[in-house]
Every structure is written in structure tokens, then in C-alpha cells.
Amino acid sequence: MRTFRKLVTAVLGSAVLAGGTLLATPGAALADPQEGLGHETSPGQPYVGNPQPERDWLGSYVVNGRQVWCVQFALTAPGSGEEYKPGDELKTKWGEPIAEDVAADISYLLLRYGTTQDADKAAALAHLLHSRTSAPREGHDDLNPDRGFKDIGYDVEGHLAKLPQQVKDAVTELQDEAVANRGPWEAGLTAPEQPQTIGQAAEWTLTVQRADGKGVGDVPVKLTATDAEVEGLAEDGTVTTPADGGPLALKVTPTGPNPKITGVLSAPADRPYVQEAVNQPDSTQRVVSTGGEKQLTIEDATTAVTAPGAVHVGKVDAESQAAIAGVALRITAADGKPALRQDGTELLGPDGQPAVVTTGTDGTVSVPDLKTPQDIVITEVAPAKGYEDAFDAANPPSVAGTLQPGQTLELSLSNQANTPTVPIRIPAGDPGAPTGETVEFGEMSLLAAGALALVATAFGGFALRRRAGSANGRR
């Protein structure tokens, strides 16, 4: 029976970037912040102590050679040599919890666009991160230019208005996408219901679904196969769900009896986590990365059997090799038990005994869909008409062979025909018999008829010689 395991969800360690912690080289001087991908807005948002009032940067930063994303607008951007340690759950600049749906949106955006190489999308992501974490609070004067960098809020509308139109479009696109595809996700892998055949591909189904049950598109899933090969894998062993979010049909070809596939994918975490600046925790922006996503594991397995085989039996005359029709043949395994079908059931006749088949007009019969490998024995049950004399019921003709996967086993049985017979009629030799009358001796073999002919010939010759002698004597 097919096994099916539900996906297992595990949260990866928080506050890591692309699998590694950001560490500065010991003793090295901190380098100036290095901007990555994005756009600047000009003029910059006014606040007390703005070091660059002519511009603001909306985009990623590069720390230790890696792209990161900052929150808590207006604080100092991280230097490329900054040292970080795992932080806490992301909160607003004001220290308030982020709403559950907003947190889920941020997690999705970081997962899907945290490694983007598109400057427009990078600027859109930075804008949305600041909008969700540092937006001015209702009832507070958070945009007052007399505030300092620690207390100033992010002017959402002001910055958006200064961005190029393509970035504005990207902001709308990313925001709508996050709302539609936010976590939690579920993933599943389903093998075929029936056992597969080794060497023959069959369809498995992979799905990734969001909270409302609709599929999520363009999700990479890394697969590992055992006793099987999966078509269409990328060089790194991944497949990607269809752009429309529909199920992904996998062509899986078993190479052994127990095909199994496991998969791993990253899904949005319930809430994002941050990396805190160690050196300047009160003035440096916090880094939020893709390291807080969930890892979903999918798995399923089935069984596989060898390709079925077939037996093709021919029945022929031992002398002429002519086909013999109507011969009953019993099919068994080597031990005399019933042969096995591909599905493992016994090949039985209506009487519950090993099946019996009969040769057709061409003297052959085929039996398909048999389990392989398997030793097969074909035994003649009863002789065809005209072949009764040579048939030994105690030791009937039989032939055996081994079925190989996907092959047809060709077997042949021959029979010796009965010795032909003819009716014989000879003159009775009775002087009193009417002229032309014969005595019926019935049928006898050709050999007996021949012997009788020889006797008759010898007798006739003797009679002729006797008559000749008598004639000569009388002369």
C-alpha cells in the first residue's frame, strides 16, 4: 500500500542571513555603510541631525559581502564590518508589536524578494519595510522635522511620491502579492495509488498552498529521490511550482522496489526576526533578513514491481512442424503451483486449479501480464485428435522457461502423429464365392497391409510355377 506522510514544519534558526551569521573580522575597523540595490529619494526627509538632507536611500545594504535589509528608518545604516548577533521578534520603531497579518506580509516579502537583483523591486521592498515598521502613529506628531533620528517616523506618502513610476508600480505589485500569498503555507507530495513499474514513469503530485487553500506559484522545492529518478530537476536538484500556483506533476521513474521522494522548501515565517547591531545598538538600524523563514518538509513513497512478461506457446507436429490447433495446455510455476499475474494474484481457471489455455487455429496461444521474474511450465493436458497414440498421461509433454521483465517467453511443444491406417479388401479365394465378392478384414496398418501383399505375391508366384510344371509334365 502506498504510504503518505504529512508535511513536517520546523522553524529555522532566527537572525541568520543566507545560512550564516554576520560577523566582523576581529580587530578590523568598521567600514562606512555600503549601499546595495535600490533608489534614492531627493530631497531627504527633514529631521534634526539628518547627515544627508539632500537624499534618502531606499534599498538594500551590503554587509560582509551580503545583501541585507534595514528597518527603523533614520537610524544609522549598518557598516560593512558590523558584527551582529541573533535578535528578537521584529517590532515597530516605537517598540510596539507588529500586527499578525503585517508580520506575515513582511516575512513573505523577505522570503520572495530578499535576494532580488532588481533595483526597482529592491527599492519597493525597502519602502514597504519602512512603511510597516516606522510609519507615523495615529495621534502622534511623528513627522515633525524638529524630532531627531530616533523619534522621526517614515514619511510614507512623501517618499513614495519621489520614487520613479516603475518603483511605485512595484510597490503595489509586491504589496498585493504579499497579502495574497502570506503564510502559513502547507505543502504536500502524493505518489500514485497503485504500485509503479520499475523503469516506467508515473505521475506524482507536488502542491504548495497558502492559508486559503489556493496554490502558490514559483516556489522552488529541493527534491531527493531514493530508488527513483525525477524528470526535470535543475542542476541543484530543485523543481519549481507552476506560476499559476497549480499542482506540479512530477514524472517519476522507479529504479528499485521502494521509490521514495523527500522535498524541502522555504515558506514565510509567522513573524520575521531581526539581527541587532552589537556595536551601536541604540543608533544603528536593525537588520531583518530571510533567515527566519520556516522550512517545510514533504515526503511520500510507494512500491514498484518489475515490468510484466508474457508467454507465447506454439504447438507443432514433430515431423512436419505444422501447427496443431485445439491443444489444451496448463500453465503453472516451476513447483506446480499456479503461475502469478502481475498484481501477485494466482492465474487460475474456473475450477480453481492452474489455468488451462487452448491453442488457436495457428497452433499458438499467448498469456500476458505475468509477474517477473518467474519460472513457467507449460504442460499438455490432453492430446489433439490424431495424436493420441504418443500421448502419455503419466508423463505428458511439457516445456519450461523463465519470464524476464518486459519480455515475451517463446516456448514450443511438438507431438508425434498417430501411425496412418487404411482399409484393406482382398478376394476371399473361395471357389464357391460369386465373382467379384470380397471379404472385409477391416482396417489394418500400412505395415500389415504391406506384409499381406508380400504374402499374396509369393503365393501367386508359387501357384504360377506349379501350374507351369504341371503343363510341362503333361507335355
UniProtKB/TrEMBL annotation:
Superkingdom of the organism of origin: Bacteria
Domain SpaA-like prealbumin fold: 310-388
Transmembrane as UniProt keyword: yes
Bilayer-crossing regions: 444-464
Alphabetically ordered keywords of this record: Membrane, Signal, Transmembrane, Transmembrane helix
Keyword Oxidoreductase: no
Protein name, entry field: SpaA-like prealbumin fold domain-containing protein
